[in-house]
Amino acid sequence: MTMHIPDQTGRTVIITGGSSGIGKATAAALAAKGARVILAVRDQTRGRAAAAEIGGLTESRPLDLGSLASVREFARTADGPIDYLINNAGSMTDTLQHTTDGFESQLGINHLGHFALTNLLLSQITRRVITVSSTNYRSAHIDFEDLQWQRRPYRPFGAYGQTKLANLLFTRELQRRLNRAGSPILATAAHPGWAATGFTMTTGQRILDHTLALGTRLLAQSPEGGARPTLLATVGDVPGASFSGPSRFGVRGPAALEELSGEALNDDTAQKLWEVSECLTHIKFPLPTA
């Protein structure tokens, strides 16, 4: 998997959720090419074990995306230039839960935590911000009237899909703002297709959950296969606001650019989501407009 990755000696990568699955595979591929890799993970026992296994210039630092205080502390201690920030971590729960700050947990971890982290680190980032999404975005909708499922009956897949759509809208609006600021940084996105990563999709429906687990065992590609689109979005020749995924029916195989559809292309929704996210996190885009 590393043969098409250019030498990364002297470059620094921060990857959230890098202690397992696709994140770990991505980290290992970049470390093997000489990058200094920082695994930003909540569980430091697992993080340190993963860093030791990956080897090279790999280390683990504490980050809980469900706590804005933790995000701020991580950003405060980040040292030097950061070539790539890979927003990889994700969460799904079959019951309505909340983060330390009171956000619906999937929204808080998958979107708002990464939104805050990116903006807090943006003045140090030199090359790219890569955000891992999912094809679940296609059936999703951003419900600004009930963004955090306070009135609607909670639907785990609906909540998850909303956050994955938010990841793409965030990438789109981030690239627009970077362009307006005259910044050379690229914002890109990727999805892994169907990969066996240890990440559990839970719906609360036993039969459906069992079917998904069985399908993963029979059909899914490895974490290394699932990491290919992230690596393309990180070091490949791709444009800003692009979306990388597996080339074989969007499920598995070599990575390639993929066309977005539906609400993921709505610039008005992207801008409104950004403004709402700033209000919720009290963190703003830090670069001046050129």
TrEMBL record:
Matching Pfam families = adh_short
- The yes or no answer to whether the keyword Nucleotidyltransferase is present is no
Which superkingdom, per the lineage?
Bacteria
Which keywords, in A-to-Z order, does the entry hold?
Oxidoreductase
Q: Which GO terms describe its molecular function?
A: oxidoreductase activity
* InterPro entries reported in the protein's UniProt record: NAD(P)-bd_dom_sf (IPR036291), SDR_fam (IPR002347)
NCBIfam families found in the cross-reference section: PRK06197.1 (NF004846)
Q: What is the name of this protein?
A: NAD(P)-dependent dehydrogenase (Short-subunit alcohol dehydrogenase family)
Organism lineage: Bacteria, Bacillati, Actinomycetota, Actinomycetes, Streptosporangiales
